[in-house]
Amino acid sequence: AVLVAAGIEAVSEGDFSSSSNATSLFFKTGSSEAATNKLQLTSAGDLKILTDGASLLFGADGEIELKHVADDGLILKHHGTGDGKEPSLTFQAGDNDIAQDDVLGSIFFQAPDEGAGTDAVLVAAGIEAVSEGDFSSSSNATSLIFKTGASETATEKMRLKSDGKLGVGVTPTVQFHVLSSSAQSIAKFSHPSSSTAAVNGGALVAIQNTNSTNNNQSSLVFNDSAGEASSGIFGFNVDHSSHEGFMKLCTRNSGGTFAERVRVQSGGGISFNGDTATANALD
Predict the structure, then answer these.
(1) What letter would DSSP give residue 34?
(2) CA 10 to CA 83: how far, in whole Å?
(3) Which tens digits make up the pLDDT trace of 80-98?
(4) In angstroms, how far is CA 240 from the centroid of its own chain?
(5) How far is CA 91 from CA 105, 130, 134, in A?
(6) Is residue 126 within 8 Å of residue 98, measured between CB atoms?
(7) Distances (CA, A) of 174 to 100, 165, 171, 224, 229
(8) pLDDT in tens, 182-221
(9) Comparing C-alpha atoms, which of 216, 224, 226, 222 is closest to residue 247?
């Protein structure tokens, strides 16, 4: 009870000279001890919390806490116990005239102290929010851009647009758009060997139409750079009702017509060139 309970000290940071009087302010408090340094304000204006596990509290009731986890990182916590009391972190741009391709906020990942230098100290990954056009009273269209790097400052590898379109390696023009820059497989589907959910225990890729006005059509189309999303060079179309249906094999002829050429009936029969009559199943 008779120990120094709190104090403020001005402490020189080095030898004084005709060109230096660098000094820090130390703020001391004690609980069951003589007061010790808990906070330092340096001559450069840096503010250091000197205690492991210390917190910054915001609000009249201290409901928002930014807590230091020693040798690990930070925790942002909302101490409210009701619904809607989760913490949030908002990035706000001060620009009052947002134009196309303006960056609203960024998160970057970097190892600037890596001893190898060169590529090792560049930004390795990042996420940016980028405007898709001029902001107005009726528009704030923004894309999320995901960046990664291998031997470079991180560059865009994936983009999620304001309308929900997702592009990998390309700015998307359809709901899911993938562009590979090299001659390699674009997608691979697999499943755990113990799984029995897929047909015959193999990998399963399902194409399901959930449109309530036309839910009996599903298609898989192969296209070239000049093709349209609704047609192609070669494709499969499945027409089904009450879990029974048929599959159409379609191709585009020299005249540019994309149409049915072969049909596999629900019972296994085969018909050709738009003849929808039931054919005998092949043995």
Answers:
(1) S
(2) 46
(3) 998 989 999 999 999 999 9
(4) 36
(5) 6, 12, 19
(6) no
(7) 21, 6, 9, 15, 8
(8) 767 787 777 766 655 555 666 777 777 776 665 567 878 8
(9) 216
